[in-house]
Amino acid sequence: MTTTAIRDIPEDHLDQALDLIHLVHHLAPAAPTRYYHRELLASCIRVGAYEDGRLVGLAAAHHHELSVPGGELPCAALDFVSVAPTHRRRGLLTAMLDALWPRCAAAGMPLAALWASQSAIYGRYGFAPATETDRIEIDATRPLDLRIAPDPRPLRLIDPAAAPALLTPLYEESRTRRAGRFRRTERRWRFETLRLETADAGADEFGPTRVVVLGAPGETPGGYAVYRTRGGEEGGGAPGAVQVRELEADGAPAAAALWSYLASIDLTGTVRAGARPADDPLLQLAADRDQVRVTGTVPSLWLRLTDLPAALTARSWAAPVDLVLDVRDDRLPTHARRFRLTAGPDGAACTPTTAAPDLTLDARDLAACYLGGARLSPLVRDGLATAHTPGAARRLDAALETEWLPFTGEDY
After folding, report:
1. Where is the active site (predicted)?
2. Full-model pTM
């Protein structure tokens, strides 16, 4: 019988790994994109499944910094997960992930994250959606009707190539408000956010990336928007559209100015934003909610705690809490035990204990609530968690609460 070996993928196997990734995910990227994928994979922790010396599966993790309540933490961003179509349903994914987590923990990453292409798979590995995004559409056939006056500072278009240096401070400030956001390198700004090096960027009929900022030259920008436009069809067909990739503002008036600008671009009739926070201020600013509509809400970043005590003690806490948590975790035996969590605005401690539990819950549910985007009380109500002490889930919810909901607006 042929055996499969799980081991690290050396650098001289990167092209073989890329061929497998592109096969499994039905990709045929242009040369610049393949080169970018190779660069990313080279910097990852990589685990492969080998059969007779041939790579038939792989899982990799980037080392990212993810904003969490009160700060940021190193995060193992799972990516490039691929199993050859000839080797599915043999337990290779489980074996590779079981080998990957100890490597990530040894690298000092107490969190793991992913974007789930098949959401039914990852719950059993301890992952759960920790952030949600709204899709928003604005009827731009008339001026945007808002409840407040827009910021009067001037708006100006800038060269996208100059955007990373100018916009990074404002983006970083936004990460201190909202958990779930990744730190960006200039390379990531250029390739992922601005799409300056993607050869097929115009394949969807939208034009090149545009960047508008709020504030005069030499001033610290009060906000910015990254967007693209598409013209309307001739002969009275579909109107033109604005596609918003990202919008950041230092307050509601600045946001009002940017949204008003996007909704006033000539020869367009619709503004669409594919990923906005569930508590986006625009939804409160809009005077006419028929003009600003949420067209869908979807899970975005999935999270797993790979070092539970380190993750819980590193975030900030909104209220005092002292509970014994009985955690169920089928994949990480070090987590399948009881922990005493003592936390509050001045810090936290999380240590193993044999004391009677106040709350029994799955590791995946603790991950879902970790960034402040979900509550545990409904899980107790619905029988997915058990409160042995009355009010335990409500007290933990109060301690986990954040002023702003977490948000992850882009893939990594």
Report:
1. 122 (proton donor), 412 (proton acceptor)
2. 0.90
